[in-house]
From TrEMBL:
It is found in: Membrane. This is Probable inositol transporter 2 isoform X2. Residues 30-542 form the Major facilitator superfamily (MFS) profile domain. It comes from Gossypium hirsutum (Upland cotton). It comes from the Eukaryota. The keyword Ligase does not apply.
Length: 542
């Protein structure tokens, strides 16, 4: 297969990439312009976790109804599933460049709709548009970069797409933090995404189509012009010859260079094996929990005992920064270490770090501060009803208080030490303000814990190990392993599998104790559509 997976030489591919800055900036321009699609992908993944905290404050219907919160998050994922599935076919039919232009247009429209939404319904419509754009871009960006990159540094350049995904997540947390005090908070958070979409649209208008797609469609001369800009003079003729032989072999084998369908795809042994590997990697990437961690890292931080929204967002910014750093590590090692070895190291580290998180959350939930009758009675007429009527109220601790649901209750810490017994009170904004006025901390998601810093270490380890391997390799492999003729369609199938897996492990709206069990590895809730009897989510502290 032309442009197959390249075996690294003694020269670091990372250094080769850096040298392109002065030797051939055209290649970097192609890679980073297409990689903005990854930036959009990452930004959307990260921004909603912080924006949702403030959307709930503006739209009380969202705060009261778990189903609306679920819809705001998951409709973008549903849109991405459709976008990735349709995008695969469109890539082979219309070309990589046109699909990226369409993705940018959809994302821009979605960002404008969300930023101006007067209610939850239109906000969800905007999320669907954004999802369609993200789905198309998520599989097209690495494909375009792969087909417009010299073989020996292809892995490193496709890893720049991974870097821009994680960079987008980091940017989203930074913007979330920047707008926490601004009027319109969440509208700025979701609206800012329109600018990189517009920038990529303009840049892609000025860039050529993928040379390999052009050659496959019979536009050999146009493809050769682009390849001569990408490859050094002593390599370009061999690359053109390899591409020619690859296309001719496919045409000879299948009898036509244009006709293509799923049956032919599945009858081709190389494609079946590639799909097994490509889809498996994409599914497994989601099942190790990365998007759960990124979507809900502010919530996870609060579960570890950090009460403030702003503190949670700030600590999540550190997490996103580590994710971006891990992508840089991937760029350096992907072509010199190899895909398989990087995956093994990554998965080993992920397992260890999830073990750390499991232990921390187990300790947090089983050793939370007790509820004191003295502290609770300090606040008149706002005691949690379930606590007042409980026969075993002396055994109540903070976690028991947070699980009360008739109505929702919160934990107001001791003014001297948050680990000492505190008060169990009705959860609403008025009570929260009363708690804060006495220099106490207000908890509605997690409880005070002396182990909170270990949760941060566990999160950091998880991201550091995940990002260079499981974060980047699935996208790189899916841009390389398929025959040129099936590359767009197969890449779309694999990306669709990724987004479907993302939706399956979606946890928004699950009760606190179920999220804890998931993080502890005790339960994995595949049936996200079965809500059962769930209490409404509680407002988070600020």
């Amino acid at each position: 297969m032309e442009g197959g997976i390249h075996t690294s030489t003694d020269t670091s591919a990372f250094k080769e990439c850096l040298s392109l800055t002065w030797r051939n900036p055209y290649v970097l321009r192609l890679a980073f312009s297409a990689g903005i699609g990854g930036l959009l992908f990452g930004y959307d993944t990260g921004v909603i976790s912080g924006a949702l905290l403030y959307i709930r404050d503006d739209f009380k219907s969202v705060d009261r109804k778990t189903v609306l919160q679920e819809s705001i998050v998951s409709m973008a994922v549903a849109g991405a599933i459709i976008g990735a599935a349709v995008g695969g076919w469109m890539n082979d039919r219309f070309g990589r460049r046109r699909v990226l232009l369409i993705a940018d247009f959809l994302f821009f429209v979605g960002a404008v709709i969300m930023a101006s939404a007067p209610g939850a319904a239109l906000l969800i419509v905007g999320r669907i548009f954004v999802g369609l754009g993200v789905g198309m871009a998520s599989m097209t960006s690495p494909l375009y970069i792969s087909e417009a990159s010299p073989a020996k540094i292809r892995g490193a350049l496709v890893s720049t797409n991974g870097f821009l995904i994680t960079g987008g997540q980091f940017l989203s947390y930074l913007i979330n933090l920047a707008f926490t005090k601004a009027p319109g908070t969440w509208r700025w958070m979701v609206g800012v995404a329109g600018f990189p979409a517009l920038l990529q649209f303009i840049l892609m208008l000025l860039l050529p189509e993928s040379p390999r797609w052009l050659y496959r469609k019979g536009r050999e001369e146009a493809a050769k012009v682009i390849l001569r800009k990408i490859y050094p003079a002593h390599e370009v003729e061999q690359e053109i010859q390899d591409l020619k032989e690859s296309v001719e072999a496919e045409i000879k084998e299948e009898g036509s260079s244009e006709k293509m369908n799923i049956i032919k795809l599945l009858k081709t042994k190389a494609v079946r094996r590639g799909l097994t590997a490509g889809v498996g990697l994409q599914v497994f990437q989601q099942f190790v929990g990365i998007n759960t961690v990124m979507y809900y890292s502010p919530t996870i931080v609060q579960l570890a005992g950090f009460a403030s929204n702003r503190t949670a967002l700030l600590l999540s910014l550190v997490t996103a920064g580590l994710n971006a750093f891990g992508s840089i590590v991937s760029i350096y090692f992907i072509d010199r270490t190899g895909r398989k070895k990087l995956l093994i190291i990554s998965l080993t580290g992920v397992v260890v770090s999830l073990g750390v998180l499991s232990g921390v959350f187990h300790e947090t939930t089983t050793h939370s501060p007790m509820v004191s009758r003295v502290e609770t009675s300090h606040f008149s007429n706002i005691t949690c009803p379930d606590y007042s009527s409980a026969l075993n109220s002396g055994a109540w601790d903070c976690m028991t208080c947070l699980k009360a649901s008739s109505p929702d209750c919160g934990f107001c810490s001791s003014p001297t030490n948050k680990l000492l017994p505190g008060a169990c009170l009705i959860s609403n904004d008025t009570v929260k303000d009363m708690c804060h006025k006495e220099t106490r901390l207000w908890y509605t998601r997690g409880c005070p814990s002396k182990y909170g810093w270990l949760a941060l270490i566990g999160l950091a380890l998880y991201i550091i190990f995940f990002s260079p391997g499981m974060g980047s390799v699935p996208w790189i492999m899916n841009s390389e392993i398929y025959p040129l003729r099936f590359r767009g369609l197969c890449g779309g199938i694999a990306a669709t599998a990724n987004w479907i897996s993302n939706l399956i492990v979606e946890t928004k709206g699950l009760p606190i104790e179920e999220i804890e069990k998931m993080l502890e590895g005790r339960a994995l809730h595949y049936k996200f559509w079965e809500k059962g009897n769930k209490p409404h989510e509680k407002s988070q502290a600020t």
